[in-house]
Each structure stands twice: as structure tokens, then as C-alpha cells.
């Protein structure tokens, strides 16, 4: 029986594996927990590092994941391989014979979001990329200029976006509109009738006020909340126990214990919010006082 060894070191990345297995580790401090390893893995503590020896069929720094290739998910005889990144996200790939479809790419863990550039992680389905990005982990910028997006202008590619420099008398995001057709739908014309430009309402821009300004470009949403653009405004879609204008507040569930806070991060957040109140310690709060939004 093979044991897959995964190491933690204060300064090194250490890799070790039996044949046909992939070992993974990340930089970490020395770990002293006696039951760190899962699924029968054995914790070995040595001078400057700790490591989990995983039983065959399990992977991950804590042996917490099943080897996704033990039961080959690849179709039509494809060869299964996988990768684990530093956030413990597993990506599965199939090597296919020429002309055969055997792909079964997937992400098997979203414990820490492996998706880059604000991509949304969905277990098994993979990363859902926001506009302008692509790739397994949304790591690749899409060059929109390769798709001739500017009808009457020059395209400039940006990371995650693009812009068009329109030729004379053309306007719009893709330079498809002629200035003679400008209706100033989201604004009004200047008093000078010879000037076809528009005075735009708040939240709009462009020669004819046709472009809604993306207020999410400089949003203040916290705790991995999703920003939803509106007209001259935006909202934050909160997750978990977070809420508030920017998802900055935490809803604390006490579980009938007036002095026990079971989530360290929640306790730290709540204590910081009430530190200027009459209470000097979270443990002194009564049940009715444990609520969010108690800033003075």
C-alpha cells in the first residue's frame, strides 16, 4: 500500500509521491494538531515541518479528498490526471486519443475560491468567469480586439475589457452609431443646436449618453460579495452571515449561549464593532446585546 506524503515547512515547498501519484503542499507554519490528517492519514511531526502520510486513494494536505482518478471519470478510455493548486482546488483533466472525446474537466473543491479575476467557483462545474476573462481558473484575458468589436473605430484591449476610439462622427461603445442619429435618450442636448453632444444624466456617459457607467469598477463590497451595477449606484450581493450596505456586518447566532462565540472570525469582527461602546469584553454582553449594527 502506497502512502502519499505531504509536507508543511516554514520556508520550503516539499514534494513527494509514489509512482503515478501527485503530491502537493503549501508553505505553512509548523502544525501541532494531533488529529490533523483525515481518512486514515498519519501525522508525522519532525524538526521543522509536519506532514500527512495519506493512504492510497486520498490526496490533499490533510488527506481530505478522494483521488479523483481512482475511478477513471474519463470517457472512451481517456487517461485521467489532476492538479491541486495552493488553495486546495483540484482540477481534473483527461488525455484523449486523437479524434476521441473523453474530456471530463472539473473543479472538485471550492473551499478557497481558486477562480481568478472575480470568477465564481462552482463545485464540479468549474469557474464561471466574468466578462473579459476565460480559462480553467479565469486566468486568461480575452482580447476582444481580435473579434472586430469596433465597427467604425480603433480597438484598444484592456485587462478584462476593451474600448473603442471612434472615427469622426461616430460614437457608441462599438462605434456603430452616427452622430446625426443622436437622441440624447439619457440626457439632453446643449443649448447650442450646432453642437450635437448631450448633457448626460448622472450615471451615464458617451457622446449620446448611451453608456451606463459601471459603478462596480470602484465598489466597496466586502467578504467576497458580488457587485451588481445599477444606474449611478450599485448593490452588494452578500453571502453567508454577512449583510449591510457593503456586506460589512456579521449576523451573530449565539446558540443560546450568552458568553460563547463559536466562530473566531465572527467574534473578532463583533468585538471590533462594539469596542467603543460601554462594554469592554464580548463575554460581558447579554443575549439581547449580541446584534450587528451597534456602532455609536
Provide structural commentary.
The chain is mostly beta strands. Among the domains are: 75-134, no CATH class; 183-210, no CATH class; 214-251, Laminin, CATH 2.10.25; 254-289, no CATH class. Helices cover 4% and strands 29% of the residues. The protein contains 1 helix and 24 strands. The strands form 11 sheets. It has a 3-stranded antiparallel beta sheet, with no helix packed on it. A 3-stranded antiparallel beta sheet has the order 6-7-8, with no helix packed on it. Strands 4-5 form a two-stranded antiparallel sheet. A hairpin with a 3-residue loop joins strand 9 and strand 10. The chain is elongated. Disulfide bonds join 54-63, 129-138, 145-155, 166-175, 238-247. Keywords: Developmental protein, Disulfide bond, EGF-like domain, Repeat, Signal. GO terms for molecular function: calcium ion binding.
Amino acid at each position: 500500500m502506497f502512502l502519499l506524503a505531504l509536507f508543511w515547512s516554514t520556508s520550503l515547498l516539499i514534494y513527494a509521491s509514489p509512482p503515478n501519484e501527485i503530491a502537493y503542499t503549501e508553505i505553512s507554519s509548523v502544525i501541532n494538531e494531533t488529529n490533523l490528517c483525515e481518512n486514515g492519514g498519519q501525522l508525522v511531526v519532525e524538526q521543522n515541518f509536519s506532514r500527512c502520510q495519506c493512504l492510497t486513494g486520498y490526496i490533499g494536505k490533510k488527506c481530505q479528498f478522494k483521488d479523483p482518478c481512482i475511478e477513471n471519470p474519463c470517457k472512451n478510455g481517456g487517461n485521467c490526471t489532476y492538479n491541486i493548486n495552493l488553495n486546495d482546488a483540484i482540477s481534473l483533466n483527461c488525455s484523449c486519443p486523437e479524434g476521441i472525446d473523453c474530456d471530463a474537466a472539473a473543479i472538485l473543491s471550492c473551499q478557497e475560491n481558486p477562480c481568478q479575476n472575480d470568477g465564481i467557483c462552482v463545485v464540479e462545474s468549474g469557474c464561471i468567469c466574468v466578462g473579459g476573462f476565460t480559462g480553467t481558473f479565469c486566468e486568461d484575458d480575452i482580447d476582444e480586439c481580435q473579434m472586430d468589436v469596433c465597427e467604425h473605430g480603433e480597438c484598444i484591449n484592456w485587462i478584462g475589457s476593451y474600448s473603442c476610439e471612434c472615427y469622426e462622427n461616430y460614437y457608441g461603445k462599438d462605434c456603430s452609431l452616427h452622430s446625426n442619429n443622436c437622441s440624447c435618450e439619457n440626457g439632453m442636448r446643449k443649448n447650442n443646436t450646432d453642437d450635437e453632444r448631450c448633457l448626460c444624466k448622472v450615471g451615464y456617459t458617451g457622446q449620446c449618453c448611451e453608456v451606463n457607467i459601471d459603478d462596480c469598477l470602484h465598489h466597496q463590497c466586502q467578504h467576497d460579495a458580488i457587485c451588481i451595477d445599477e444606474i449611478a449606484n450599485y448593490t452588494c450581493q452578500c453571502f453567508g452571515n454577512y449583510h449591510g450596505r457593503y456586506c460589512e456586518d456579521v449576523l451573530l447566532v449565539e446558540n443560546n449561549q450568552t458568553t460563547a462565540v463559536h466562530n473566531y472570525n465572527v467574534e473578532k469582527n463583533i468585538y471590533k464593532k462594539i469596542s467603543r461602546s460601554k462594554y469592554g469584553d464580548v463575554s460581558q454582553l447579554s443575549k439581547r446585546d449580541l446584534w450587528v449594527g451597534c456602532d455609536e
